[in-house]
Amino acid sequence: MIDLEAIETRILHGGRLDAGEALELYRIAPTYWLGRMADAVRARKHPDGLVTYIIDRNVNYTNVCVARCNFCAFYREVGHRDGYVLGFEEIFRKIEETRALGGVQLLLQGGHNPDLPLQWYEDLFRAIKQKFPDFKLHALSPPEVIHISRTSTLSPPEVIRRLVDAGLDSIPGGGAEILVDRVRKLLNCCNKATADEWLGVMRHAHQAGLRTTATMMYGTVETDEERLEHMLRLRALQDETGGFTAFITWSFQPDHTELGAAHGISEASGIEYLRTLAIARLVLDNFDNLQASWVTQGGKLGQLSLAFGANDMGSVMIEENVVRAAGASYCMDEVEIVRNVEDAGFVAKRRNMHYDVLGDPFFREHDVARMLELSTAREAGDTSVPAELMHYPARSAAGKKQRARPPASPMA
Amino acid sequence: MNINLAIAERARAGQLLTAAELDELWASDVLSLGMLAEEVRRTRFGSDVTYTRVVETGNPSGAVGTGVELRIGALPASLDEAAGVVVAARRLAGTQLLTGFSLADIIDRHWADLNEVLRRLQRAGLNAIAEAPVDRIADIAALKAAHDAGVPVRCLSLQRPVDGTRTGYVMTVRSLVQALPSLQTVAPLPREQSVAVPTTGYDDVKSVALARLGLPMVKNIQVDWTQYGPKLAQVALTFGANDLDRVSTIDDESLGRRRTAIEDVRRNIAAAGFIPVESIPS
Ligand code: SF4
């Protein structure tokens, strides 16, 4: 039986948990014990009582994807009538709206669209930076980098170098799911990136001087050991590079997914989320920041996360497409995030991707309308094809056919 | 533990905490408060969590099978109509428990003498008044009238959100339960929520904990499963709640899921470390 008192003393003195201890704690330690320990570590790392958040917009530039992960409700197959690629002008408009709300960056992620060559990304990034020089691009998770590396036949480090030249500022930690290949095979996401490939892209990014985040999606087919293995692999890479700014975990959202339907998997419970967050705070002792996933857990659990190790409320998002497709539709605008942070007894501050504090809440100094619902990538039924897409070569048969036609609704 | 140990000791012993003590508990950190409420609840009331399957009238797809409570929600404009709704619902309910209405709504209508109104509803087939929100009606005479008319109030609830400590609410409920000890179910989370400014997670779980600690004579601290959702409702169980209301009888298969509402609720209860027990309404 594990000696909780001895472990408590070790944790409070900054000592490290080994794999066996972490697993046993995750399985049997009382939830309140995990919460108290995680809270103590949070307080040690953030003694100023600040809880941060970022105003950025979560934009999914395309939903067309060849990866077909079975836990994903967001993607559309190549040639599907609901498949979309956002136009540059659409993205500029989203940036302008984001800036009006005090936003400083785009979180830009999308499907593995075979008809978007590297050049498209480079042109987009350059165009954004030219129009909005201070605006940050937190873009393209490791599987997207690998996808582009395959379509361009360049190595991932070379792809990263080209994207950085074009304006990439940092890489989001999406697509990690569970970094164990047994699980990735069952989720049909091993092809998009093995665990080693995912970690490899992050290593290259860190070596190239980029900061990145790390994520974990739990609650599918993995075991407790595999969740811990995931965290330990992140911890090891963080020891090596120190390049991760934050860790974000969330539960699999089963609605409308192949996996949810085929296996009858229900969403992991709220308490499981709080326990997972807390053990992550204890295991990931070399990560400074842990985000609350209010977008999957709701505002109430999002706030309670602050008592279970989280020190950051993530992003106001403004827009969300992926989790919504799988059944969750929570919204917290800046006003609501700040109210929740302060209600929990913390001081709310705006930050950037590097977790530098940018200032006090934007809405307190500017006239900003309340936002009670997150936007979507596009209005429902908008299937317009952006004009500039025609300038890029498509790889798929459907893509080639579409680009042979003049655009249905030209966008300058 | 960041909590006043003397107060914690008195709570463990089931003593009546003063308003000042409840205020102090409210100001404690959320985990310490929750831990104490859970400890008190386990030692005094065990590890069972009861849940009730409810079919609401106006939602005819719900099957009124055995062990299900049929509940009438909105109160019609006239007493005749209300009695008519009860008669129709009774036909649907068969021998199952039929509850309905908020005592506060009934009183606000000023239809006739309250005793007569309640007896009329009872004669029409109503078994119990679903709830009395104590921020609207804290009149022990009205609660006793319902009891005497054979339509006892099943739950002392709260209509609107409260700012700050819930001490006032707990003290009001306590005085009502002391006067009418058969009132054994308290739902401390507000029925109304603002979309723009909902109650926070901290608010909700602390309200549950304070109700548990301030009401040692009450067995059931209840959370509405449908309104508050599986996540908050489950976490509330570890803050002293032991009863889940309004579990749907309808299985949601629209999303390609193979689970039922009952499975969901039982799984959530077990995952929180408690024993799920279906409450058979009678
Ligand atoms: S999770 Fe990403 S990579 Fe996988 S199918 Fe969905 S969009 Fe494609």
CATH topology of chain A: TIM Barrel
Structural class by secondary-structure content of chain B: alpha/beta
Helicity level of chain B: 40-55%
| Secondary structure tally, helices of chain B | 11
- Strand neighbour order, sheet with most strands of chain A: 9-1-10-11
Number of strands of chain B: 9
Helix content of chain A: 40-55%
Rounded to the nearest angstrom, the radius of gyration of chain B is 19 Å
**How many angstroms separate the termini of chain A?**
67 Å
Describe what this molecule looks like in 3D.
The complex is a heterodimer of chains A (412) and B (282). By secondary structure, chain A is of the alpha/beta class. Chain A has a single domain, classed as Aldolase class I (TIM Barrel, Alpha-Beta Barrel). In chain A, 42% of the residues lie in helices and 13% in strands. Chain A is built from 16 helices and eleven strands. In chain A, the strands form three sheets. In chain A, strands 9-1-10-11 form a four-stranded mixed β-sheet. In chain A, strands 5-6-7-8 form a four-stranded parallel β-sheet, covered by helices on one side. Chain A is globular and about 70 Å long. The model of chain A has no long low-confidence stretch (mean pLDDT 94). Chain B has 282 residues and is of the alpha/beta class. Chain B has a domain of 144 residues. Chain B has eleven helices and nine strands. In chain B, α3 crosses α9 and α6 packs parallel to α7. The longest helix of chain B is centred in the first third of the chain and has 16 residues. The radius of gyration of chain B is 19 Å and the shape is globular. The interface between A and B is large, with 36 and 36 residues. The complex binds iron/sulfur cluster (SF4).
